[in-house]
Amino acid sequence: MNLDLKNKCALVCGSTQGIGKATALELAAMGANVTLVARNEASLKAVKAELSNNGQQLHSYLCVDFNEPEKLKELTQQFIQRNGPVHILINNTGGPPAGPANAARSEEFLSAFNSHLLCNHLLMQCCLEGMKNSGYGRIINVISTSVKQPLPNLGVSNTIRAAVANWAKTLAGELAPFHITVNNVLPGATATQRLAGIIENRALKSNLQQDLVRNEMLHEIPMKRFAEPSEIANAIAFLASPAAAYITGVNLPVDGGRTGSL
Asked: How far is residue 133 from each of residues 87, 136, 182, measured CA to CA in Å?
């Protein structure tokens, strides 16, 4: 099985922590030149230092906030002009705050739309020509199992994640003739800072101890544990590899069996 990513350039968003960081490390281990994207430059420098460097890899970073889509587009275009094509695009950014859909303000939907769907779209457009010209493209969106089964108290997230999933499925059909695949990875409950925040929020709203909320969540997972970020990264890395050339337009849950739909 060909998992070799040498001479491939990967742009990994949200790559200073959690799933994004684990993905950057895995892609680098497979030989890719990794460009980290996040808003905290000190954290970007720290992760860049962790990436393996065997003298053949050129790792870099872009420091930008996803609340500034046009700046993200400008910096990405400049990077590609200087360094050449991006072959692998990992769209990944922190989810919207928890809360019921009926109480969400319009600004919350607009903010989430901009930082998720719009930023994904602009990055895709920046990378598309290079992918077409090189005959190799992987666009992988890290979203949520909520696209198959909406999650309680995540109204804005459920809405925007579904929009991203349908955008990706549409793109998959459009870009397949150019040997570009577009897939979605749907993490289940994963041991990240976001999960800790969700547990804390649920505990506060229900006036329960965090350990009780955590155990209730674990009870819903057949494997009875949370995923490690590296386990989600493994699925992303496979889809980014040459071995996954004939897989496109799929929603892949990596959730320990929690999602109750096919």
From this structure: 10, 8, 17
User: pTM above the 0.90 mark?
Assistant: yes
How would you class 129 by CB atoms within 10 Å of its CB: exposed for 0-12, middle for 13-18, buried for 19 or more? exposed
Whether the pLDDT of residue 70 is over 70: the answer is: yes
pLDDT score, position 53 = 67
The phi and psi torsions of 242 (rounded to 5 degrees) equal -60, -30
| Average pLDDT of the residues of the chain | 95
What pLDDT, on a 0 to 100 scale, did the predictor assign at position 173?
98
Structure tokens at 96: 């919207």
Give which of 171, 163, 139 is closest to 236, Cα–Cα.
139
- The 3 state secondary structure assigned to the chain is CCCCCCCCEEEEECCCCHHHHHHHHHHHHCCCEEEEEECCHHHHHHHHHHCCCCCCCCCEEEECCCCCHHHHHHHHHHHHHHHCCCCEEEECCCCCCCECHHHCCHHHHHHHHHHHHHHHHHHHHHHHHHHHHHCCEEEEEECCHHHCCCCCCEHHHHHHHHHHHHHHHHHHHHHHHHCEEEEEEEECCECCHHHHHHHHHHHHHHCCCHHHHHHHHHHCCCCCCCECHHHHHHHHHHHHCHHHCCCCCCEEEECCCCCCCC
Q: Beta-carbon neighbour count of residue 243 at 10 Å?
A: 13
Kindly list the distances between the CA atom of residue 44 and the CA atoms of 66, 100, 149, in Å, as whole numbers in the listed order: 15, 33, 34
pLDDT of 157-202, one tens digit each?
999 999 999 999 999 999 999 999 999 999 999 998 888 888 888 8
Contact 211, 162 (CB under 8 A): no
